[in-house]
């Protein structure tokens, strides 16, 4: 029976296509006339991936493996970004810092902790360890701040940033992490999702106002609020998994970023 709406696989494919537009803009802007709407379309991508990932934590049979895959992807991206940027720097001067895996890992770590705390409370068991686990990305941020500016301790902060994702330094920071946890806590209630997501987008829209630039700043400079247009896809989610191909997404993400960087370096 054909289900109406979009399943998780279809939402991730939509997010993937929009992501490619965004990364083409980031890689080639300044050396090719890439239109602004490429990156505006990209504002929808991360929220859709986050939406699918948060739902994945609701259904996965092995959340620990789920977390370990995201952690491994995060570590790989940090080493991969450093390597590619060293040998194939972007001609427009942009830094290769993409690592959505770190953001997804932190979101899922917090969700996992929430799930375990809920189970422990029902079974009247201690859950302090899961509160600590939930706060690990915060602790890593504090340590990084304390060490990164000290030449003698810089390497400590660098290694912690590599192996213990930070809620401050991950891609999207507090906003995307909060988005992921908030979507999970909406418990697939479409009304709650709609209200939460719209209000967050509205907040980003208002925060984008720059009095020196005027209203234009809210539409052309601080563009993260355009993510609001991902909401219809979320509301049309039919709670079906669809095709698997999980490793395709894990592989495609770094591959397309590095291929674009190498092409830009060779051509220009």
Automatic annotation (TrEMBL):
Keyword Ubl conjugation appears in the UniProt entry: no
Record field: transmembrane: 9-28, 34-54, 66-84, 96-115, 127-148, 160-186, 193-211, 223-238, 247-267
Protein name: TraX family protein
Keywords: Membrane, Transmembrane, Transmembrane helix
Annotated InterPro entries: TraX
